[in-house]
Amino acid sequence: MNWHLLQLSEIEQLLNSSPKGLDSITASELLLGNGKNQIADQKKKTPFQMFLHQFTDFMILVLIAAAIISGIIGDLVDTIIILAIIMINAVVGFIQEYRAEKAMEALKKIAANTARVLRDGKTIDIDASDLVPGDVVVLEAGNIIPADIRFLEAHKIKVDESTLTGESHNTEKTAEILPEGKYGLGDRTNIGFKGTNITNGRALAYVVATGMNTELGHIAKMIQQEETATPLQKRLIAFGKRLSIVILLICTVIFVIGWLRGGAILEMLLTSISLAVAAIPEALPALVTIALAVGAKRLVKNKALIRKLPAVETLGSVTYICTDKTGTLTLNKMTVQETYEIPITNADFDFFKENSLLNAMALNNDIKIAKDKKWLGDSTELALVKYAFDKNIKKNTLEKILPRVAELPFDSSRKCMTTLHQTEKGILVITKGAVDELFDKLDKKQKALIPEIERKVNEISEKGFRVLGYAIKLLPLLPEKLNTQDIETSLTLIGFAGMIDPPREEAKQAVAECKQAGIVPVMITGDHQLTAKAIAKQLGIITSDEDLVLSGSELSALTQTQFEVIVEKIRVYARVNPEQKLKIIKALQDKNQFVAMTGDGVNDAPALKNADIGIAMGINGTEVSKEAAHMILLDDNFATIVKAIRHGRRIFDNILKFIKYTMTSNSGEIWAIFLAPFLGLPIPLLAIHILWINLVTDGLPGLALVSEASETNSMNRPPRNPKENIFSGGMAIHILWVGFLMGAVTLGMQAWAMQNNNHWQTMAFTVLCLSQMGHVMAIRSERESVFKIGFLSNKPLLGAILLTFGLQMMIVYTPFFNKTFRTQPLTLNELLITFAVSSIIFCAVEIEKWFKRKWK
Ligand code: ATP
């Protein structure tokens, strides 16, 4: 439909709507007919497909084939058992994947965009996916356009359509109808497209197409980003491939030796295949996703919403947190503490002379008074308007006498804003902004006063106050074109106000915690250098003369190379523009730092994308910034970043423990089966035993490790180098030696039991299974003894161990399973000996940790 060529009245008729919007009943009917306003996710698997997917793994297919062949030639019971084990494994795999998927979906739902619409004559916020054609949406700078729209009213609207057209400049939009002709997407100036960003102005618009009917829907593939693997997953996949070859070689050797020693060829084949299936860690990358998704779910409870899963993993590597000041480090609750008036000498302003500063405070702002009498708007402006109000200068009354006729809105690069008011003498221009930014805009006569004013401003700023100045001038007529250079010049400064924004108490502690953890907190602010420095001192960000403060203008004077010499010393960047954040990120990254960066505005988006972890603000952030971020702070609080890092470190530690546990178990089995022939022993385990241990009893305790609490030193050690090999730092050695010990203990048990006419196979099988329970208990902490952290402190793990133990006892003591698993009930004596021998692994790992505590 050529919506851009239609009159608004025609559109209203077609959509059955009006500038007042739809009523909610019509809207819900339309929603039923049109479907949700979202881009269909083609890749989504149904639960059944997810279940089937569990069987597509190559190794499992090999196992199924082997089981069937063995069934045809030999033992049908074996076949059934193996198939049952594979089935249980598939069910467990399915449940895990399904839960991870649900956790991710829940996260996506919280992250979903909202849209502001007119419904039943009221302005309300709804889930953007509930929009229907005919809805009237209210839009402003920072919004992502939620559907395809036709503008009905547009005030200085500019839209960044690069996501759609690839062109990065902003397109101006109007509500005007276009003359007949052919127009490309980028030329339809009265249409806004779903997924593009409003960078300036405000507007009302009709929704004309939703969901898959939008232009974005037509090219849906563009946004269907591949879910990429996390850095750890990539490494695990590469490592898994190499390891698989080694394991396959070992299994071939075991097969050949077994066969040469006269073992039944089929049995040896099945044992080797089972060992290969069990020992190749092909499920590890998927399990990492589960651990990360579960971790992300927990982070939401702590007010950190993860938008990109790899962020959970990389949080622990952050070395620099570059954070905004206002609202994140401070409370964003401003109050005016002092004012300073400069007498007006120019007779032209006689009508404005009395209470000029207070009048300017009441007039120059965008504060709105809601129906419930609540004042809405930016906290800086709220403070100023309230100050004037308390002194009996009321915004509403004054605006009736001096109505606002135009404005130049605030932007953080100019650091000021201007309102224009109709008076009898002409147009009164009031500019409010950072005083140092106003200096250049003053008329010649006042420039002589600057040094004195500057002294006064510095004095107030040093207390950590934000200082805002007011300047005015008169124009004979309202200019046709409003541009800042012409209007914000030759102004007369009439005074300024100093306001306090107290630092957040919890931010102080969080800064201290960061420093303990080897993370450098850096403040980036649009505020004055002295204000920023004072707050940074109060928070502990600056503690010595070596901690530097750099201003935006100093930063732009430096070349990238010069900047990189000092970048690691800078703790505060003041009066910077959002665009300069990119330069800071690049310099730190060039120095091999891992940077987390916060941002809330539209122009913070590039920095958020380029930071290693981009963090947007949930309350005060624009949608564009949220879309670009890896993580969203639901409470806009700096302390939450530090909390998220603490959790990130814990999650990563636990993933490492999980890898350590699984790989050591595999190593134990390989050692036992590989060494047996060399010691003249029969292979201790049957194929079904190997599969049982790996695919059933191993999984539960391993997964429960994800719930382990933080290591006591998790925030007292430096950040993890993201490039570091996970198997360094002793993990590989642990896997080899503890695995070897497990194998040795199993074979020792076997040899002893064979000599003493005991049930050697059941004993060896049970020892191997229980040794792993001991191992998982001992590796719960990297350094601390389990006796210190408490045996009962990880309840899910305790439950998993008890369950596994119960299952093993079921196999040993019930006649049905005795038959199928070829086990025999152990005597009490045998059982106790098995327990004692299994505890060797637990004790050995505890001793390993004791050495670690002693020597490291
Ligand atoms: P931070 O970057 O620490 O979060 P901020 O977001 O408040 O601080 P900006 O909004 O970029 O920083 O503001 C920069 C400067 O612009 C402020 O120091 C102040 O001097 C000025 N300023 C802020 N708000 C307004 C406003 N509403 N009108 C005029 N000037 C303002």
Automatic annotation (TrEMBL):
It is found in: Cell membrane. SMART domains: Cation_ATPase_N. Pfam families: Cation_ATPase (PF13246), Cation_ATPase_C (PF00689), Cation_ATPase_N (PF00690), E1-E2_ATPase (PF00122), Hydrolase_3 (PF08282). Residues 2-75 form the Cation-transporting P-type ATPase N-terminal domain. The keyword Transmembrane applies. It is a multi-pass membrane protein. The chain crosses the membrane at residues 51-73, 79-98, 243-262, 268-294, 670-693, 726-747, 797-816, 828-847. Its main location: membrane. Keywords: Cell membrane, Membrane, Transmembrane, Transmembrane helix. The keyword Membrane applies. NCBIfam families: ATPase_P-type (TIGR01494). This is Cation-translocating P-type ATPase. The lineage of its organism: Bacteria, Pseudomonadati, Bacteroidota, Flavobacteriia, Flavobacteriales.
